[in-house]
């Protein structure tokens, strides 16, 4: 069963939150972070993208860059831009996108739950990315950014969330660039804290939705600190890491689409003919066409949109992996026809999150940069949970969650 705890959050004063908050570190590059931070010395980018504190071209993996993150984290606290709460408590974080709001509980997730599989993952992680995040956690002795979890719906937790959602939030702002709404409440009532802890304690599992590398890094650093502490008791703060946990039914997963540079030596007509072996192919015209159901794909090629429907027998509905559209397209199109064997390493393919829209796929093909685009029907949260429960791993680049968590609303110290 899942173990969580409240914690003393480190966060900006209400009047400064829009100066401090930022997008997550991994959704923008150094140049974008430098431009967004601009002359704002309070921007969290000085901590989560600390290469912007150095001349352009400085590697984000330079040891000085990590040290700069820690120096700025301390400076933010010294200047009162980040202040630690006096009481261990939970927090409620709401995000609104396109009129839909999802409510997440901010908790301390248990390191041992990650190590033993109570916290379940559906993606593989890369050692180099894990080590980068581990260095960041070590040097700051804190989880600066949260990870994104899903949990099985709970009516008891829904009631608590509903109660706080009717009150005045601590933070309430519209984020720049995407225009999504963000609200944040403090849950300090001892009875509510006890109930939240008990309700999570009834859950057999929590599920990583987004932030697999941050989760791995946080858990591994926690385990490392436990191993290196001769007086380790098990109740130290480093035994927990910060997560925002949302009811699974509330989450929005967008399509995660593919653009490919060439047709592996085939002409467009040859490629379309080859597709008919495993798909029913129908030309849809020049207007954008979005797949309407599982096992249907939208193809954009030479100015035309096509519907591709996978034929019976090309997938196994009883196989949690084989039934996925990302697996079907990887096996039967990218691998079998185009010779793209490893989506993580091939330079012939790129990936476009669904928030960018079909227009971005069309633009990249029409520009001549790419030869064709393939739009997928979004993965469901149930599919993700089924795969995690079965101990399997999803194919690469399968999920795109929106909205992303804003960073800088809350930080968790390990000390």
Written account of the structure:
By secondary structure, this protein is α+β, with helices and mostly antiparallel strands. Helices cover 31% and strands 24% of the residues. The chain contains 13 helices and 21 strands. Strands 1, 4, 5, 6, 8, 9, 10, 11 and 12 form a nine-stranded mixed beta sheet that branches. Strands 15-17-16-19-14-18 form a six-stranded antiparallel beta sheet, sandwiched between helices. The longest helix has 17 residues, at 212-228. The protein is globular and about 65 Å long. The two termini are 26 Å apart. The model has no long low-confidence stretch (mean pLDDT 94).
Quick structural overview:
By secondary structure, this protein is of the alpha+beta class.
Secondary-structure blueprint:
Layout: E1 4-5, E2 10-11, H1 17-20, H2 30-37, H3 45-48, H4 63-78, E3 83-84, E4 90-97, E5 100-110, H5 111-116, E6 119-120, H6 127-140, E7 142-143, E8 147-151, H7 155-165, E9 171-174, E10 181-187, H8 190-200, E11 206-210, H9 212-228, E12 240-247, E13 253-254, E14 256-260, H10 268-275, E15 279-285, E16 296-301, E17 304-310, H11 325-335, E18 349-353, H12 358-366, E19 372-376, H13 381-390, E20 400-401, E21 412-413
Parallel strand pairs: 6-11, 8-12
Antiparallel strand pairs: 1-5, 2-3, 4-5, 4-10, 5-12, 7-21, 8-11, 9-10, 13-20, 14-18, 14-19, 15-17, 16-17, 16-19
Helix pairs in contact: 4-6, 6-9
Amino-to-carboxy terminus distance: 26 Å
Radius of gyration: 23 Å
Main beta-sheet annotation: 9 strands, mixed
The helix/strand class is alpha+beta
